[in-house]
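Q: Got a minute? One more chain.
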Amino acid sequence: MIVMKFGGTSVGGCEEISRVVSIVRQKLDRKPVVVTSAMSKMTDLLYRIADSAENRQEEEMENLLNELRRHHVEVAEHLLVNNVDIMLETTSRLNEICDELESFTKAICVLGELSERSRALIISNGELLSSTILASTMNASGIRAVLVDARRMIVTNSNHLKAEPNIAEIESRVPRMLESECQGADVIVTQGFIASSTDGEPTVLGRGGSDYSASLIAMALNAEAIEIWTDVDGVMTADPNKVKTARRLDRISFEEAAEMAHFGAKVLHPLTIEPAIKKNIPIYVLNSKNPACEGTSILNNVHISDGVKSISYKENILVINIFSTKMINASGFLGKVFDIFSDNKVSVDLISTSEANISVTIDDGQNISKVLEELSSFATIEVDRGKAQISVVGQNLINHPGMLDKIFAPLDKERIFMVSQGASLINLSFVVDKEAMDSSIEAIHNAFFGTGKGK
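A: Always. Here it is, folded:
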């Protein structure tokens, strides 16, 4: 059994969904479970619907709801035109989903109040709509597809918008449910991203969470492989929008993939790797627009060579410098500092310390006013904004002579604000001015991979 996840651009319209059906048809002998994202741009549209409801902008909300309904119904009618019975059944279900959403958002609009629970419920509809169309299209093409509601399988805590999965419950529910409900099916179709709490409340796994859903389902089923189908040929040595000579990587380790995702690479959700590691399930990143391409294999590190694999980045970060002589020879100081970040739910990325100074990076946009206030009660605080973070990722970087020279020699004219190398020896990260980010990424990439065309 394999788990195949298709992202929003892979199910973005009629042509794309038809291509997905063709790809899945070639894998029927491997008993695929297909996990789908919402159609491209539809989750953004649902966020806008939620915002307009909260702000009591009823006319705008209704226009957006009509756009959502029209888009999905038109795609379904086009794909299913040759099977009227399935088309009528499918469009009826799509309208039912949209009717329920409209009733709910109108109530929100009257109240002018939107809870996290309500927002989670609204933004869950994209996957419900896309999976309905995908399963129907498969059935109309002769593939016996059974649609299963992921909210009955993926159980989480009550953090509605960034839920944490209950692994034990998922491992119990998924195989039991699929075995009981999917006898005789060629394909099981379900949704990514959406889930429910142990109390049955609507939750979601956070932006990009469909990858995570696929990995959780694969873990529960002891699947032989996870295929992440997207719109690029695999994991690249750098963002091709930043570096035109970026090339596809044939294979990387689980640990390298996790570091790349955490430090800005957008091909995978950062949490996707953990369930796969637990069961040692290989992940393949593939291109639905170019299915003949071999993509990138993500495997146990015993199969992976050492060396730099990718240059990742994060834009819009800030550096907080914390200085206090009370740090010197004092136990518990670091704990006090990071308790403040934790209590205020501010996520820290890089950390660098000296005898009397702590420097951390965080994504800009987080509310840090309370953090700064509490830290200022016992330390001197400086905040540097307008920064970017660059990460060089690869196995056993420290074992390669000349590594630092290759990274920093091309940046001899740039200001480096902070450097951090993890004990894992798998990434080296540093901070530059945001204006210097693009040129710095390209210069480092050229130092390691040359200036020739990628594969």
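A: The CA atoms of residues 235 and 267 lie 7 Å apart.
Q: Perfect, thanks.
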